[in-house]
Amino acid sequence: MQPVLNINDVRCVEVALTREGVSVSELMHRAGYAAAQEVLELGDVDNVVVLTGLGNNGGDGWVAAEALHGRGVNVKVVCPIEPDGLSGDLARQVAQSAVRAGVSTLVGPPRDELESLLETADVVLDCMLGTGFHGEVRAPFDIWIECVNACGARVVSVDVPSGLSGQTGHAASACVVADMTVTMLSLKPGLLADDGRDVCGAIVVAPLAEQTERLVVDADPVAWRTDLSDYLEVTAPRSAAVDKFSRGSVLVVGGSRRFPGAAIMAARAAARMGAGYVTLAMPASAAGVAQAHLLEIPVVALPEDADGVITSDARDVVLKLAERSSAVLVGPGMRVSGGTCALVSALLGSSTPLVIDADGLNCLARLTNGELPEFPEVTRRTAPLILTPHRGELGRLVGATTPVPDSLVSQLEAARKVVWSDGGSELVVVTKSNATACVGVERAVLPKPGPAALATAGSGDVLSGMMAAALAMHRDEDPDLALLAAYVCEVHGYAGSLAAERVGSHAVMAGDLINVIGLAADAVDEHAAFPEGPDEG
Ligand SMILES: NC(=O)C1=CN([C@@H]2O[C@H](COP(=O)(O)OP(=O)(O)OC[C@H]3O[C@@H](n4cnc5c(N)ncnc54)[C@H](OP(=O)(O)O)[C@@H]3O)[C@@H](O)[C@H]2O)[C@@H](O)CC1
Ligand SMILES: [K+]
């Protein structure tokens, strides 16, 4: 797994490195060389334009320019002011060194001159703004960024694309769209989420020093991004002698007369994920529709109110079914009512592994007045509990004290409030967004984000059904729950890619995802076992 550090913690690592004898000047040189090396490795690089800012990100650029010049590349550095005028000592020194070495410069060019220069470039190296950037981009960089994004050259950003917050992942109205980002010391959360996903291109981490790995771990990473091989621990080792019950059974409780589909999709997804036996429990008036769609899955009719919503009279029958199941999913399409809240509360009190999604989460928010972290006794149980809120639902769970998360870091913060107040390793919050994080008490795991094709109605119901199946299939193994949840997200994402290939990226419906879950799981399992491909592996 690769650690992800908050920007402030990256600065702490920088300080720790200097204490261990690696000066900031040395770090800047290594950063510049690392960037230059990545540029050269792109191939066919004769002309490079380096755009520099006034801080240390610019300093990295001057070092890279001198290194590329030394390798025979035709380099031009564009800078807002004369190198001698740079106020930071380090940046000024490396700029002066580059000029002495013969690197040519262009100071404060008018727009048309910059455009003409960029037309000649094979690669543009973006060293305008790094982690010191805040607010809206000021001149001249706003114009420079427009010119970079309009030119045809390949763009490599140093540390972060200029205009992107490396912390929040929010881009300013001017932001470089890079083909590659060479980031220093460790991944940063803003590179992995929201606008960061669109503007970073391929991300390469340059560690800069041999002590970095240790110091980054000491700095308490805010999250860990998985590599496929990490999932080996949680891919299902299937013995040849399985029967339908030994593969795990799932109970899905949900649906309403108005919304029967969500629970149906979740049940089908659980079966496709590999649960040997799936039961769906729904309000009576929806059960007939459901059974007509589900030949392989028995549907149990539950007592309902006048609106076709499950009532609290369903409690005993649901608890009995739960007792016989390896895992339960509650929530999809269920609506929020006194009856459904009572059901969620009863299932929390059971000893069966549980996934709560959608309206089940809204019931949980109502049961705890939007202050879930204040009621740890509600989530504390002996069996696993996975909550799968999207940002809005997470906001409702913690909303009395915390605004709706609008970034990966705020998702992580809100989810941590919940898991830390609970304090046990049986609880994982899967906070869903364009960058989903599986947050356990010990660490937050980031699966590779799925494709845009996943943004379709019912996609979340499919995920929660898969999640329940994974809990059921691993019930006897005491798995690392955050990692298991991340594995499920990874399979869900892969299913999105496969479905997009089959039906077109804009056409994917949740049913298409369900049909390819098995193929997606096989593919992820194979990649986990043979990360380099079966031949080389
Ligand atoms: N961490 C490490 O170990 C290592 C870090 N290194 C590198 O250092 C970088 C961080 O350097 P940094 O702190 O000097 O900040 P940087 O990003 O260059 O920006 C500061 C300049 O931008 C300006 N500026 C700010 N906002 C602005 C705006 N909206 N619009 C316009 N301008 C704006 C700001 O102006 P000010 O706000 O001061 O007026 C100041 O002039 C980091 O990203 C990495 O590349 C490596 O060298 C070595 C290892
Ligand atoms: K940059």
Automatic annotation (TrEMBL):
Residues 227-524 form the YjeF C-terminal domain. Residues 10-216 form the YjeF N-terminal domain. Its cofactor is K(+); Mg(2+). InterPro entries: Carbohydrate_kinase_pred_CS, CARKD, Nnr, Ribokinase-like, YjeF_N_dom, YjeF_N_dom_sf. AMP binds at residues 432-436, 460. Binds 1 potassium ion per subunit. It holds the Pfam family YjeF_N. (6S)-NADPHX binds at residues 56-60, 130-136, 159, 262, 333, 390, 461. It catalyses: (6S)-NADHX + ADP = AMP + phosphate + NADH + H(+); (6S)-NADPHX + ADP = AMP + phosphate + NADPH + H(+); (6R)-NADHX = (6S)-NADHX; (6R)-NADPHX = (6S)-NADPHX. Its EC number is 4.2.1.136, 5.1.99.6. It comes from the Bacteria. K(+) binds at residues 57, 126, 162. Homotetramer. Bifunctional enzyme that catalyzes the epimerization of the S- and R-forms of NAD(P)HX and the dehydration of the S-form of NAD(P)HX at the expense of ADP, which is converted to AMP. This allows the repair of both epimers of NAD(P)HX, a damaged form of NAD(P)H that is a result of enzymatic or heat-dependent hydration. Belongs to the NnrD/CARKD family. This is Bifunctional NAD(P)H-hydrate repair enzyme.
